[in-house]
């Protein structure tokens, strides 16, 4: 995601490949006749379809808007992000995998880790967020730019439907210093108290404000040049659909490691090299 160009509540990700946009702004029917124009369930998207991940992402975002989870502006940010994923070859770079492992290590060493969830995150990876929280003993907190009581409740309910036992963010008794908008509103015993925060698809000013509070930030962002990625302790430049499960996989792999071994993973990660590799892949990648 590029950080502040569209709704910061958004995410990142459609791809400029299959399908198009008609004059009314609606997605055109995908070129593959086997894919329904408007699948009711993601199971209708064939497992072997070459654009399955892209179609799946779009389906989840559309359903998120219908359920009041994702804002309409989130659709725009989703498309912007998918363009970056296309340039990255729609695959996890080795440096992004290293970042995911470092992220898992930070979460396992944390005293109070928290995963921040906005509308696009809730629509795209609700179950995966719950799995990550369980693997790292992290809290889950809803935090929105376009914050309304109804939307906050809808996202919290959606996360509970996917297995979350507790969802923070509704108490709203804390603030992030230096921010004037609603995204500064947090729970005092959640993000405000956290030492490590996962902030997927984040806007740059909030990322900077959390860093100023002394928190270790793990940012998931498809644009390595965004302010969010640039200020993160661990920038995971990858599609959130791949990144969140990958962090969880590494957390489970490190679960039995000693603290010393986990700290070695943290110390070995080179954030500047990871950002440089991602930017190089975007600028020099072969799009076929």
How does this model look, in words?
The protein has a domain at 94-284: 3-Layer(aba) Sandwich (Rossmann fold), CATH 3.40.50. Helices cover 45% and strands 9% of the residues. It has helices spanning 52-66, 72-87, 94-109, 119-124, 126-136, 149-161, 204-212, 227-231, 240-253, 259-268, 271-284, and strands at residues 113-117, 139-142, 174-175, 185-186, 196-200, 216-220, 234-236. It has a five-stranded parallel beta sheet with strand order 2-1-5-6-7, sandwiched between helices. Strands 3-4 form a two-stranded antiparallel ribbon. Helix 7 links the parallel strand 5 and strand 6 (216-220). It is globular.
Question: How do the helices and strands line up, and which of them pair or pack?
Answer:
Elements (H helix, E strand, L loop, with lengths): L51 H15 L5 H16 L6 H16 L3 E5 L1 H6 L1 H11 L2 E4 L6 H13 L12 E2 L9 E2 L9 E5 L3 H9 L3 E5 L6 H5 L2 E3 L3 H14 L5 H10 L2 H14 L4
Parallel strand pairs: 1-2, 1-5, 5-6, 6-7
Antiparallel strand pairs: 3-4
Helix pairs in contact: 1-2, 3-9, 3-10, 3-11, 5-9
Structural features:
288 residues, alpha/beta, Rossmann fold, five-stranded parallel sheet, two-stranded antiparallel sheet, 11 helices, 7 strands, 9% strand
CATH class category of the domain at 94-284: Alpha Beta
**Strands side by side in the biggest sheet:** 2-1-5-6-7
* CATH H-tier superfamily of the domain at 94-284: Phosphopantoate/pantothenate synthetase
Content-based structural category: alpha/beta
Radius of gyration over all CA atoms, rounded: 18 Å
- Beta-strand level of the residues, as a percent range? 5-15%
Helical residue percent band: 40-55%
Low-pLDDT regions: 1-33, 35-39
What is the distance, rounded to the nearest whole angstrom, between the alpha carbons of the first and last residues? Answer: 23 Å
Give the overall shape, derived from the CA principal axes.
Answer: globular
Order of helices and strands: HHHEHHEHEEEHEHEHHH
Give the CATH topology of the domain at 94-284: Rossmann fold
CATH architecture of the domain at 94-284: 3-Layer(aba) Sandwich
Count the beta strands.
Answer: 7
Instruction: Please report the number of helical segments.
Output: 11
Mean pLDDT: 83
* Main beta sheet strand tally, sense and closure: 5 strands, parallel
């Amino acid at each position: 995601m590029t950080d502040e160009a569209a709704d910061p509540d958004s995410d990142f990700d459609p791809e400029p490949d299959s399908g198009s946009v008609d004059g009314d702004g609606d997605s055109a029917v995908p070129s593959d006749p086997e894919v329904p124009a408007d699948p009711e369930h993601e199971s209708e998207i064939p497992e072997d379809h070459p654009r399955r991940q892209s179609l799946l992402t779009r389906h989840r975002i559309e359903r998120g808007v219908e359920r009041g989870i994702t804002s309409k502006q989130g659709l725009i940010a989703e498309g912007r992000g998918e363009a970056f994923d296309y340039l990255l070859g729609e695959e996890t770079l080795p440096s992004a995998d290293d970042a995911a492992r470092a992220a898992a290590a930070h979460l396992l060493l944390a005293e109070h880790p928290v995963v921040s969830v906005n509308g696009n995150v809730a629509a795209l990876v609700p179950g995966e967020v719950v799995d990550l929280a369980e693997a790292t003993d992290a809290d889950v907190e809803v935090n929105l730019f376009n914050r309304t009581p109804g939307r906050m409740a809808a996202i919290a309910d959606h996360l509970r439907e996917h297995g979350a036992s507790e969802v923070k963010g509704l108490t709203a008794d804390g603030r992030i210093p230096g921010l004037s908008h609603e995204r500064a509103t947090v729970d005092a015993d959640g993000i405000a108290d956290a030492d490590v925060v996962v902030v997927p698809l984040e806007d740059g000013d909030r990322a900077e404000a959390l860093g100023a509070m002394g928190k270790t930030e793990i940012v998931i962002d498809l644009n390595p040049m965004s302010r969010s990625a640039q200020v993160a302790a661990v920038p995971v430049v990858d599609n959130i659909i791949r990144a969140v499960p990958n962090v969880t996989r590494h957390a489970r792999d490190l679960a039995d490691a000693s603290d010393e071994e986990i700290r070695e993973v943290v110390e070995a990660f080179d954030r500047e090299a990871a950002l440089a590799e991602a930017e190089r892949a975007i600028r020099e990648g072969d799009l076929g």
